[in-house]
Amino acid sequence: MDEAESLNRAIHEEVALFPYDANWPAMFEDERNRLLHVFPRDFLAIEHVGSTAVPGLSAKPIIDILAGVDSMARADALMEPLCRAKYATSMEFNASLVGRRWLMRWAEGRRTHHLHLMVFSSPEWEQRLAFRDILCANANMAKQYERNKRRWATEFRSDREAYTAAKRDFINEALKMQHGSLL
């Protein structure tokens, strides 16, 4: 399989959940270290987010990485260098995003990493970290989320955007519940 075919397969792969893999944290650390080596002064923080960051949680086997930058202008300036550093992206998709940029790495026709560039400490940055921390701290919430994700993965197997949208309400509700418990 050539590189173009591999990328095309990765872009169009179906949603599939896999059991938790104890290698996911190490895969994050390896990529974090690589990014910090290649871009030593560009990121204010790099965090492991998404379901692969929650011990025991089934997930799409894609490491979600949140990279904090000082501005969206910095994020935009990093897009081309990141693509030279083994990432790919859709400029059309990124044009639809407000407050973040998205890239992916792939190998052998499947996605391996998603890189989300965001302004460090922005509300969306804080929400992603808060949701990860909620799931890590609350096993019942994590199990409920996993049950829902399995249902959505079946329902939206061929539509990644619909799968992502289905998760949004659960995430927002969990964040509201957490916020309410802090008051």
UniProtKB/TrEMBL annotation:
It comes from the Bacteria. Gene3D superfamilies: Beta Polymerase, domain 2. PANTHER family: GRPB DOMAIN PROTEIN (AFU_ORTHOLOGUE AFUA_1G01530) (PTHR34822), GRPB FAMILY PROTEIN (PTHR34822:SF1). This is GrpB family protein. The lineage of its organism: Bacteria, Pseudomonadati, Pseudomonadota, Gammaproteobacteria, Oceanospirillales.
